[in-house]
Amino acid sequence: MDCYTANWNPLGDSAFYRKYELYSMDWDLKEELRDCLVAAAPYGGPIALLRNPWRKEKTASMRPVLDIYSASGMPLASLLWKSGPVVSLGWSAEEELLCVQEDGAVLVYGLHGDFRRHFSMGNEVLQNRVLDARIFHTEFGSGVAILTGAHRFTLSANVGDLKLRRMPEVPGLQSAPSCWTTLCQDRVAQILLAVGPDLYLLDHAACSAVTPPGLAPGVSSFLQMAVSFTYRHLALFTDTGYIWMGTASLKEKLCEFNCNIRAPPKQMVWCSRPRSKERAVVVAWERRLMVVGDAPESIQFVLDEDSYLVPELDGVRIFSRSTHEFLHEVPVASEEIFKIASMAPGALLLEAQKEYEKESQKADEYLREIQELGQLTQAVQQCIEAAGHEHQPDMQKSLLRAASFGKCFLDRFPPDSFVHMCQDLRVLNAVRDYHIGIPLTYRKYRYKQLTIQVLLDRLVLRRLYPLAIQICEYLRLPEVQGVSRILAHWACYKVQQKDVSDEDVARAINQKLGDTPGVSYSDIAARAYGCGRTELAIKLLEYEPRSGEQVPLLLKMKRSKLALSKAIESGDTDLVFTVLLHLKNELNRGDFFMTLRNQPMALSLYRQFCKHQELETLKDLYNQDDNHQELGSFHIRASYAAEERIEGRVAALQTAADAFYKAKNEFAAKATEDQMRLLRLQRRLEDELGGQFLDLSLHDTATTLILGGHNKRAEQLARDFRIPDKRLWWLKLTALADLEDWEELEKFSKSKKSPIGYLPFVEICMKQHNKYEAKKYASRVGPEQKVKALLLVGDVAQAADVAIEHRNEAELSLVLSHCTGATDGATADKIQRARAQAQKK
């Protein structure tokens, strides 16, 4: 164990810091890092180098070169820089490279050097040029802060939703500040800058002078400042060689350290881990690295070559031309187990396991000592936690074996923490591999700072699809969140390979994806279309089972006729209407109608649409198809909907009649002509008699005439339009009864023999509650309806006599049903005797 702690360095009495190698860099750099613009993404992200950034020669051999490497030095992309001079580089949270140019333009590149987009920081920046820039990260996303030649600051807190803010002017600022940085307080991005001995804080509203509490006297300038990874703490390096450390709000001082070096450092970053009470700052000069904190002494390292510091959540990455190292505070669990002469339960358990492997009895002694103190559970937990903080797999295995050994002597130790640690370490070791180059620590991975979904996205960005799928399968993630999502990304990358034919790409994607749940072929087709491969996009859409996803993309690709066919196959009328309206705007009228003629279902739906929205278009459709039957119906509807004048209505009806004749529909044509005659007659009646006749039906017209006392005109109307006698008698009977003109009704009944009989007269009179008049007609009713008529007028006794005379069982039963016990008892007895006599015979 003492050898294991050889690289531990104490900072004060309560903390140790260690530096170990992550990778041996094989990137074969020809320039020193100081001669390049450098940007390294946090969370073990990639490294970008812009070589010869200050060269302005136009020859290709002398142009700046932008190189992108993984954290292990594996090349990812290299391209000649053909745009303007670059002031600063930085990585966004999505691992996109932001290149801030002197003219204020920000160019965004992908991990593999593919250009994504660009945006400008405003006209003022363009006019005054950019002196300096910072790319920073907040909870809202990645932001950019710009210092212009006019010594003004412009800031955007989120480049994904660009909103530029011009910060307030600093009073009396005539030259660039000696140092500045971005802060994030209460969800607001701010800028802290130093001008001589003064500090100014800029927010969206004002410029405020601030003073760090407890700052050593004699400071005439601030040379460097650094904000912690979480924006909670701030460090200031003064020209007196003092380093002030406190809260980012500048309200509380943590400590102050005199490093006795007045030369400005190249870099200064914070080095602390979450939940730790220790705070430390790492300061780098050309050949010296110093770790300082709340202790009288510092930790110093000699730098053999030019190095670059990358602040992380739980430490600092340090890379040079030859190595990539990680400096961090030794976690508590590791310190408890590995520090010299430790008697912590985890240390004893590790020794017990090692002695057990040697088959030594000391294993039992160590184990008994832990059990006597009741600390076996704590020992297992310490070993599991320490394993997560170790970088070397051998040490991880040794600690996990010790934890497994200790678990055997516990009855109810929950296995979840052990199982999850094994899973997490296996994933971390896979992505830390030199060929992958993502040196994540357990703390960054496990404490929700970088979730498994984000890790998978980063593997996908690096096109490491097999490893991402293996991790999904190992962790048993749901297909939609895991394998399906990765396969969809792989397919989107596959369609960009233009050296492979459309047929081969479509077949390969379908063979790989099949019917995998959660995969949308339409999204992949959209990517193919975006790459200019329209035919490939169409082939991929053939595999898309959802027509609602196929059709919009086909319309976007201007394959409207194919989209119409797909919409019709789906049976979704809303989808068909969407395509039809698109086609109508895209094609000329003739081509549109011809397209509809080849699709009967679409034509039918479009007709339904036109009936409610575009009547003239509907008429054109019928004309083009020579559909005279529907054209006649159209003109009939139009005659009543659009025409108010009688002449216009008759003209429209005449057009409809002509159309019906062409359609060989004699009945419809004759009916239309009769309607025209009726309209003309109704107009004449209105002119001669007054009143309202127009738009009444034939029957209502006759009824109105009768009610008005114009019986002869009603009879003439019946003759002209061949109204049957029975119908005319019914009409006249009903009208006279409504008028209660009983005298005229009696005359009418005696005018000739009634074609409808006299029972309707009885029924109509009783409906008007006139029994007296009803009895007049009951006597004239024929024998077959006599009983019913007598019952209607309430003459039950006479009805019984007629029924007995007719010897009709049905009539007898009908009369008997109308008898009541109180008044018709004799009649009921009479019927019963008649029945009995009939049965005897």
TrEMBL record:
It holds the Pfam family Vps16_C. It is found in: Late endosome membrane; Lysosome membrane. Belongs to the VPS16 family. It comes from the Eukaryota. It is a peripheral membrane protein. One of its GO terms (molecular function) is actin binding. This is Vacuolar protein sorting-associated protein 16 homolog. Residues 519-837 form the Vps16 C-terminal domain.
